[in-house]
């Protein structure tokens, strides 16, 4: 069932890789014109291949390969620009702090970055606009499932790029005949008609219905067990489409079944290794920009350069995170409170630092101390944690080892 997502993610990845190398070639050609030689391209090929690998990791971390988010909208392109800012910093540090490749592409790097942005914009627009119509869709019939089933049908009808097509939605207790462009069927006879007339690939049904041996629908589906369509649990399909677990199925037993720490040792070690690798690179950039940022913060309102704050991290342990200060010195004189858009407490320099995320660079120290991670939930202040625990069931689960905390955004 994950093949439509996997296929499209592979297409995105291969397309991005192609764009990187085309941009490298075109950038060098633009730079040297008639003097351009293939030897120049091959001289840049090896170091840029290493660099592109890091860029792809940055893209992945920022969610640019999340098919459900890969849309031609402002939020996506803003995310892309933020990723390219990070990639530009990585490239700058890569070539000037590791002068082992025999090249220091100042103008070349700027041109290649510019060409990459233009080509990436064209490629992703073409992908999101045209590719979904050429991909064979997975036809599904959804059996029961209540609100979750309706949510799935609604998402599929409004998101054709996901690669699914809902043939019908079975709702035995519903008086509707059409739901958000999806036909509703109400009995076994109508289900038989649909399955025999249309080329259905997948039948989705809740597990509790599958365990009901007295159900007429289940008996009919069982008699067709060896036909071409596949069966999948509604909760599993919901997770694939919506990218989260239905709230209705989450309870203590679900956590006991799905969050077993003994089975995640390899994942944890790999995750930590990646954190150290990327953290070391970002630490170099932190050192590079420290002096200009420190001077700007100091000149803005003469307060301290850094801001520290207690947060709840791994296993519920308190940690102290560090940021370049972006708010006035007395911003929390009345106690901790969430920042808001247009917050009057933010300084002039702080607005720029927040918009570019530079204010969070000092948290690379927390990452290198293995207190935080690049991937995972946001660590909150103790005061907020106490309040959220009252409002959100199982909030404490976010602090277990398998989901080490990330820097706040």
* Overall tally of structural domains: 3
End-to-end gap? 33 Å
Mean pLDDT: 78
- Report the principal-axis shape: globular
Measured as a percent range, the helix fraction is: 40-55%
How many helical stretches? 14
Summarize the topology.
Blueprint: H1 3-32, H2 38-61, H3 74-97, H4 106-134, E1 138-143, H5 146-158, E2 164-170, E3 178-179, E4 182-185, H6 188-197, E5 202-205, H7 207-210, H8 216-223, E6 230-233, H9 234-242, H10 252-258, H11 265-301, E7 306-312, E8 318-324, H12 348-356, H13 364-368, H14 382-391
Parallel strand pairs: 1-2, 1-5, 2-4, 5-6
Antiparallel strand pairs: 3-4, 7-8
Helix pairs in contact: 1-2, 1-4, 2-3, 3-4, 3-11, 5-9
What does this structure look like?
By secondary structure, this protein is of the alpha/beta class. The chain has 3 domains: 132 residues, no CATH class; 112 residues, Rossmann fold (3-Layer(aba) Sandwich); 142 residues, no CATH class. The chain has 14 helices and 8 strands. Helix 5 links the parallel strand 1 and strand 2. Helix 3 packs across helix 11. The two termini are 33 Å apart. The C terminus is likely disordered.
List the main descriptive attributes of the protein structure presented here.
single chain, 409 residues, alpha/beta, Rossmann fold, 3 domains, six-stranded mixed beta sheet, two-stranded antiparallel sheet, 8 strands, 54% helix, globular, disordered C terminus
